[in-house]
Amino acid sequence: MDPTRDAEADSQTRRSFLVAAGGASMAAIAGCADEDDLDGGDPADDGAEDGGGSDDQNVIEVSIAPTDSFDNIRTKGDGSEAITYQIYAGLMTYGLGEFEPVGELAEDYTISDDGTVYEFDLREGQTFHDGSEFTAHDIVYSWERLVGSPNTQEARHITTDVPVDHDVDAESPGDAVYPDDYVPGSLAVKAVDDHTLRMELRAPWHSVLEKLTIGEVEPIPEGLVDDAPGYDGEMGFEEFESSPPPGLGPFEFVEYQEGSHARLEAFDDYYGEGPHVDAVEMTILADDDGRYQRALGGDVDIFEIPETQYDDSAVDIGTETELGVRTGTYELENGETVNYGEWQDVYTAYIINNAERVPKHVRQAMAYTLNQHQIVDEAFNGLGVPSYMYTPPTVYPGGPEAYMEKAREEYPYGFDERLPGEARDLMESNGHDADTPFELTFTTFSDRQPNAYDRLANLMREQLGPVHIDVSIEQVPFNTIIDRAIGGELDSFSLGNSIDYPEAQDTLRYARGDPNDFSRWYGTEPAERAADIWENQVLANPGPSEETVEAREQAYIEMEEANWEEVPDVMLYHPVETEYWSEDLEYEPPSTAFHRQQYNHARFE
């Protein structure tokens, strides 16, 4: 990269790359659509040796954010995910450099002609980290718990998204997202025998295998926790949530001290590639800058750099993959050179406005006042693409170019411009002025990009004040935001969504005009229209045929338009992810945003 470019040109070049990279990802996605090519292959069939390394110094050092939960049925923060990515394994996965699901715990699978019955042949001889044998019964138990536990936050994955057949209690107050109405034991997932799993769907669905790569559906030993309907359990939920869990992944949890450190060691009985190192030592630090200082000191092998410290001119790109991952080197501020990788995330960051607390005119005034391009540059140091819709550009109908064309021509609150005059007029027509502003509390992360979100919050306060919105700022941990959002206790707050499979449906579930969503946006004409589109155009066309794909894609566009009308959420940006690793470490970063950051294939030279 040319270090002489000015900031504006630098930012525009980065955005051009991100759009181009998105096109490569879409081509890969399109290449995965042929069901005749689906094969539950072994991602480890590359001749790589199994088992851990032999050198006592063969340990990867990393720093991670604070942990919260290690339980797959709970929403987890970044620190916990850094650990669970290494210790769990699931039925399906993505192989390095590939964008088609392949078998992980599943050696093979069959799909019925009508697309409603999936049967998986499971690997034999696999053991959990606690020594218990893995069988189909473990998945039945884990998924029953995912759907039926009173502690679950993730039931939708196999009730709403993957439409696994099950019974509901019509008199229960719950819905398909929350498990109150689920009839225990009715989930149509059965162990045919110890190593055969059968799953029946209510209707065919377009992304079943992709969805089965996610962490929420990865199993734990049968009967381990006592909150699954029909099981006694060996331990309570609270003990399990904060304890080192036994998984089937390449590393096992051997030591953990909350707020201090975790040690994972190579699991000798892991079926797949590696691990080629003996262990992973994880130091837990709440502060981004603290983790960065460890990287500057040479104390870690794989790390990230806060946006505040990122310098685009320090990047020297050497290669780019077909999936859009760019790798090269990066010169740290201390003069040391490290390896570098970047790829476009499928995450959309936004400001959620609780519609029961923040009126429509305030939400619209916020949208008029804030400029997403400025936010990317000033708050997030150019590491992303301005966002105008829930759907990431790589999975938007027609791809990144269609996304930007739609936003440029039709976004009603100004594309790459601020319109404070319109915002002020709107607020004054609703009774607000300098003496009687609308008082708004914006709650943002203290443990996820805290410096970047602090800059965002202060930019909001500076720009919204003159349009009669008085912003107070509070920073709290991610899990606190989740808990308070569930209770409807927040005005406006930072959040976002990373999609689990390459389809807009996975993010537009938060834009469907549902009173259970964090935005509490419902009851208005646009909200009811979005709900109708979701029910009668998206959910009514679940299959993989060309006709149903076209119907869904048109529905996605119409849902985005309905949300533009009342702005329950103000879009911010779609990030680019970066990762850095020491020169003596052979390591391949994730091939796409759907791949996990796992260390079993890493080795020291």
From TrEMBL:
<protein>
    <submittedName>
        <fullName>ABC transporter substrate-binding protein</fullName>
    </submittedName>
</protein>
<dbReference type="InterPro" id="IPR000914">
    <property type="entry name" value="SBP_5_dom"/>
</dbReference>
<keyword id="KW-0813">Transport</keyword>
<dbReference type="InterPro" id="IPR030678">
    <property type="entry name" value="Peptide/Ni-bd"/>
</dbReference>
<feature type="region of interest" description="Disordered">
    <location>
        <begin position="32"/>
        <end position="57"/>
    </location>
</feature>
<keyword id="KW-0732">Signal</keyword>
<dbReference type="Pfam" id="PF00496">
    <property type="entry name" value="SBP_bac_5"/>
</dbReference>
<feature type="compositionally biased region" description="Acidic residues">
    <location>
        <begin position="33"/>
        <end position="53"/>
    </location>
</feature>
<feature type="domain" description="Solute-binding protein family 5">
    <location>
        <begin position="100"/>
        <end position="515"/>
    </location>
</feature>
<dbReference type="InterPro" id="IPR039424">
    <property type="entry name" value="SBP_5"/>
</dbReference>
<dbReference type="GO" id="GO:0042597">
    <property type="term" value="C:periplasmic space"/>
</dbReference>
<comment type="similarity">
    <text>Belongs to the bacterial solute-binding protein 5 family.</text>
</comment>
